[in-house]
């Protein structure tokens, strides 16, 4: 068979994934809880797992039809195109949102420790100077489309008194505890089908 080399690669990838998952679980048992949030590979993979899996399923049928031993019929091409379009419609919005959120927050670090009343934002390695009293308004936007791959993509806009706006996205952390921490600041909550910033 033409693709016989794929099985050992997939088996090796699965073993590597299981070993890394087990190591992460074991290290999580003995590590101290961190209060520093940034765009990590683990957080990104947690958000991208299902969209990438759907995209991979859609793309996996293309080589079978295109590189088959016999030419594919028009009906097979139509089914392949429909399945590929369906998986793109499922995963595409999440992938686009992920790229947008990454562009906004890949250099952002959030330090959030509610027990110590500590809340700081760093952009490009520099602390953004503000105190909680400098916040004029908090805008919390969540996804209304709950059963989609992009449902976990939400954001928080911090409107400062001097006119600056800080955007914190779901790539950093779950934003609901931060919203609860900032409950003394006037908060606007809204939901959208697609949380584009």
Q: Looking at the structure, what is the overall shape?
A: globular
Helix content: 40-55%
Q: Largest sheet at a glance?
A: 4 strands, antiparallel
Separation of termini? Answer: 47 Å
Uncertain segments: none
> What's the average pLDDT?
88
The helix-strand sequence is HEHHEEEEEEHE
Which structural class matches the secondary elements?
alpha+beta
Order the strands across the largest sheet as they lie in space. 1-2-3-4
Over the alpha carbons, how many angstroms does the gyration radius reach?
21 Å
Strand content: 15-25%
**Helix tally?**
4
According to DSSP, the number of beta strands is 8
Summarize the structure.
The protein is an alpha+beta fold. It has helices at about 5-30, 40-65, 75-105, 175-180, and strands at about 35, 110-115, 120-125, 125, 135-145, 155-160, 165-170, 185-190.
Description:
Strands 1-2-3-4 form a 4-stranded antiparallel β-sheet, with no helix packed on it. It has a 4-stranded mixed β-sheet with strand order 7-6-5-8. The mean pLDDT is 88. Strand 3 (118-123) and strand 4 (126-127) form a beta hairpin. The chain is α+β, with helices and mostly antiparallel strands. The longest helix has 32 residues, at 74-105. Helix 2 (41-66) runs antiparallel to helix 3. It has helices at 6-30, 41-66, 74-105, 176-181; strands at 36-37, 108-113, 118-123, 126-127, 135-143, 155-160, 165-169, 187-192.
